[in-house]
Specification:
The protein has about 210 residues and is of the alpha+beta class. The protein has two domains: about 35 residues; about 160 residues, Glutaredoxin. Helix content is about 40%, strand content about 25%. The strands form two sheets. Strands 1-10-9-4-5-6-2-3 form an eight-stranded mixed β-sheet. Strands 7-8 form a two-stranded antiparallel sheet. Helix 2 packs across helix 5. The longest helix has about 35 residues. It is globular and about 50 Å long.
Length: about 210
């Protein structure tokens, strides 16, 4: 009788261990499934360890409508700050982004991305001037500007700077950050692209961010 009971206990112990191990593996696998997704693999974009919030702001779009932080939600936004009288950096950047847009359109992904050009020269860049300038590169690109107080509030929130520099003719030019800010669909500052903006790698990174690669 004692031998029979002893054999029964020995036979049950491995089953208990197996069940415990299976439960532990199931819990581990479940935690893997519900954990945060792996970050996208990008080649040229510099992504921050954690996206940063952008403070409230209001600018005026080229079409006369207001542009606020709510307009940055629901898309990946690539925002570049410059001015229409810029002799080199701004037109080169927008020309590169035009090529990026064409590549995204060929993948059917332009509904997930928007490009935004913000002028830091509101004295000269009227809505009409902005509309003509940006529309020359791509009519789907957004364009906006604002007062210096509005622009300074936003550029500081994005980690960018700009300054007007008088020239010898009595006019001025504008020095500004040359990086393009990457804003995620939650409206947070997620990273940046630094020049030179090569259309191929930039397009590939944006597709990776949208989950299309």
């Amino acid at each position: 009788m004692k031998l029979t009971r002893s054999r029964g206990r020995i036979g049950a112990t491995p089953l208990i261990i197996i069940a415990a191990v299976a439960l532990a593996l199931g819990l581990w696998a479940g935690s893997r499934r519900i954990g945060p997704p792996a970050p996208p693999v990008v080649a040229t974009a510099i992504m921050y360890p954690a996206p940063q919030p952008i403070g409230p702001f209001t600018l005026r779009r080229a079409d006369g409508q207001a542009l606020t932080e709510s307009d940055l939600r629901g898309h990946w936004t690539i925002a570049f700050f410059g001015f229409t009288h810029c002799p080199d950096i701004c037109p080169t950047t927008l020309a590169a982004f035009k090529q990026v847009w064409t590549r995204l359109a060929s993948q059917g992904k332009t509904d997930q991305v928007q490009f935004l050009f913000v002028s830091v020269d509101p004295q000269r860049d009227t809505p009409e001037q902005l509309s003509r300038y940006v529309g020359f590169f791509n009519e789907d690109f957004l364009a906006a500007t604002g007062t210096d107080d509005q622009l300074t509030r936003l550029t500081r929130s994005l980690g960018l700077v700009y300054a007007r520099i008088p020239d010898e003719s009595g006019g001025y030019s504008v020095d500004h950050s040359a990086s393009a800010v990457i804003i995620d669909p939650q409206g947070r500052r997620a990273g940046l692209f630094r020049p030179p903006f090569e259309p191929g790698p930039v397009s590939a990174d944006i597709l990776a961010l949208t989950g299309s690669r």
